[in-house]
Amino acid sequence: MLGAVTARPIRTDRLLLQPLAVEHTEEMATVLSDPALHTFIGGSPDTPEGLRTRYARMLAGSPDPAVSWCNWVIGLRAESCLTGTVQATIGPSERDRGRTAELAWVVGTEWQGRGIATEAARGLVAWLARQSVRTAVAHVHPDHLASAAVAAAAGLAPTDRMQDGEVRWEADLVGTASR
């Protein structure tokens, strides 16, 4: 069995992906407060208290020892502010002895359209490849063109598989760790 993966800081040209901490709650509650962010995923923005509870639960880790929950806040270094989140749920591969990471990202409305989600997703995928993750997967609503563009820019390609009304996107990360 492969060991657990722990979120570590990830630097890109403009961003610092910082491992999630409960201390990020207040700023992130503001970043994620726009109901429009839930158009494709459903639900509504968390209150600061609800977000704090959710972050604490996420930081407690997966109850399955074979699964690692890795979560980051996206920091825009030049503006010294948080702009969104990326996450990877890392577990055993369906096909082989390697690992698969299920990815997700969200960038606050105020920072959308600046390439932040793309840069964060690319940085995350590169980091995952260095953690011996073999496959990256994301599920994207077929009408969410911006998220599909992020997935494509991060090296994922759509498959013909659907899950809960979303298209499964995949990337084979074998041999990409040095890129």
Task: Name its key features.
179 residues; alpha+beta; Aminopeptidase; 25% helix
Content-based structural category: alpha+beta
**Shape field:** globular
Which runs of at least 5 residues are low in confidence (pLDDT < 50)?
none
Rg (CA only): 15 Å
- Report strand %: 25-35%
CATH topology annotation:
Aminopeptidase
Order of secondary-structure elements: EEHHEEEHEHEE
Judging by the overall fold, what is the CATH architecture? 3-Layer(aba) Sandwich
How many strand units? 8
Number of helices: 4
Straight-line distance between termini: 26 Å
- Overall pLDDT confidence: 93
Percent range for helical residues? 10-25%
Account of the protein in words:
- By secondary structure, the chain is α+β, with helices and mostly antiparallel strands.
- The protein contains four helices and eight strands; from the N terminus they run E-E-H-H-E-E-E-H-E-H-E-E.
- It has helices spanning about 25-30, 50-60, 115-130, 145-155; strands at about 10, 15-20, 70-75, 80-90, 100-105, 135-140, 155-165, 165-170.
- Strands 1-2-3-4-5-6-8-7 form an eight-stranded mixed sheet, sandwiched between helices.
- Strand 4 (about 80-90) and strand 5 form a beta hairpin.
- The two termini are about 25 Å apart.
